[in-house]
Amino acid sequence: MNLYLDALTRDDCQRARAWRNEGYDVGNLRTAKRLTEADQDVFYDRLRQPGCPHRYFAVRIQPTGWVDETSMYSPAAELVAMAGLVDISPENGTAEISLIVSPDCRGKGMGREAVRLVLVEAFDRLRILSVYGECYNCNPPEVLRFWQRLVNDWGGYDACLPARKFWNGRQYSSFYFGWLAEAWRERAR
Fold first, then answer.
1. What are 15-28's pLDDT values in tens digits?
2. Is the Cβ–Cβ distance between 2 and 61 less than 8 Å?
3. Is the pTM of this model over 0.85?
4. What residue numbers bound the domain in which 65 lies?
5. Cα(first)–Cα(last) distance of the chain, in Å?
């Protein structure tokens, strides 16, 4: 699988918004509403401001058989996910991970590879010491299993945080997880 992180464009951001709005019951997400184009444009513009503590990436896949000696990436590379590091804190060495995968690419290992690429960015390039995340237990079971598998496979840590999300008339716990740079390097490479 030939995935890579690329600069996120406004169009990429809007495509990820559509995946998010169509692919999930938005009530179980952190922002429990359907995002409009205007909402996403404001988000994208905020990402481009100097000093923004978030870094988002387009995750693209090279077309099969594409070869060009003048460029590393194909202009026809397909967007498969939007991934990011949120609330990057250089003083604490921490960041939160974010991921949305195209519905057509789910269950094919692309989400796992996208997370690996973001962790390489975090730990090797940005020198972050700990990357964490949170998945509400009201998410579809396959989403929760995805994060649990990565934590287990890559030597992460996890905890159950009770009563983190009120949705659909109920209070839900959260699967809180993360990786320390050194432990991840030992297991994920």
1. 999 998 886 666 66
2. yes
3. yes
4. 3-133
5. 15
